[in-house]
Amino acid sequence: MKRAVNRVAAIHDLSGFGRASLSVIIPILSTMGIQVCPVPTAVLSTHTSGYKNYCFVDLTDYMESYIGHWKELNIEFDSIYSGFLGSARQADIVSSFIDDFSGNKPLIVVDPVLGDNGRLYSTMDEKMVQKMRTLIAKADLITPNYTEAAFLLGEDYKDSINEEEIKNWLLKLSEVGPKIVIITSVPNGGLHKKTSVMAYNREDGRFWKVSCIYIPAHYPGVGDTFTAVLAGSLLQGDSLPIAMDRGVQFITAAIRSSYGLSYPQREGVLLEKVLSLLKMPVFISSYEIL
Ligand code: PXL
Asked: Going by CA atoms, what residue is nearest to atom 8 of ligand 1?
């Protein structure tokens, strides 16, 4: 019998302060009517973007018995969605999780969290980049940001990139395995600064683009927010371009509701003010086909 609500295994860290990873993924997917079952990869006092001296507890050694219990229970998921990993070994654990829980063909989403603005996050290193390259091969859909895409491909990070080059990046990442590749925060350059989310779907050979005005702000956790809305939207039955539109529209609304207020950006967008927008469908869509 079909489950009454979709169920997602969410393999991410729990950061206590700063609105990233599970702290944003759980409320977003719950609001979208989806059951979230977290597999915590690490527990941190804060996320690592803009905070120093954070407390970091790596949960690698607990994950296998945690997951072992779920195997005994024969739990099925409609999606397996991984993000920030606490150690390179966790990539193998996530890979086995995908093998063990793929009997009913869940949507496998890997957000290869590694860095932003041209740099790796402080807990990441070249070994993690290599492991992420292996893990993305197992995914149906991946959502690196522009920095992460550059690291995964071994390309130089540049302040702007043209459409043909980014299409080439999308194709190359898809050749590693995932059917759908989405690169976020792609800089457009030009006079009216914009940023885009670009996608390639190997199944139909189509490229998609959703652009929005660039706001000169850096709120950590926005990548997690985008991928959570995108995954939720796909699970609700939306098409890929509509799911991208919903992700971008939600982030734009969240940033706009936060930007005019003065508080430290490292605390993340004021998700609490905009969560209810997720109950609404997309009214005005702005995706382009390339
Ligand atoms: O938003 C990605 C992310 C997830 N988890 C932790 C982070 C970050 C980005 O800074 O530090 C712990």
From this structure: 47
**How would you write the pLDDT of the chain (290 residues) with one tens digit per residue?**
789 999 999 999 999 999 999 999 999 999 999 999 999 999 999 999 999 999 999 999 999 999 999 999 999 999 999 999 999 999 999 999 999 999 999 999 999 999 999 999 999 999 999 999 999 999 999 999 999 999 999 999 998 899 999 999 999 999 999 999 999 999 987 656 789 999 999 999 999 999 988 888 899 999 999 999 999 999 999 999 999 999 999 999 999 999 999 999 999 999 999 999 999 988 788 999 99
Name the percent of the chain in helix, strand, coil, to the closest 5: 40, 25, 40
Where does 101-221 have alpha helices with state H? 126-136, 146-153, 163-176
Assigned fold of 6-289: UDP-N-acetylmuramoyl-L-alanine:D-glutamate ligase (3.40.1190)
What pTM value is reported for the model? Answer: 0.97
Q: How far is the CA of 83 from the centre of ligand 1 (A)?
A: 9
Q: How far is the CA of 25 from the centre of ligand 1 (A)?
A: 12
Domain locations along the chain? 6-289
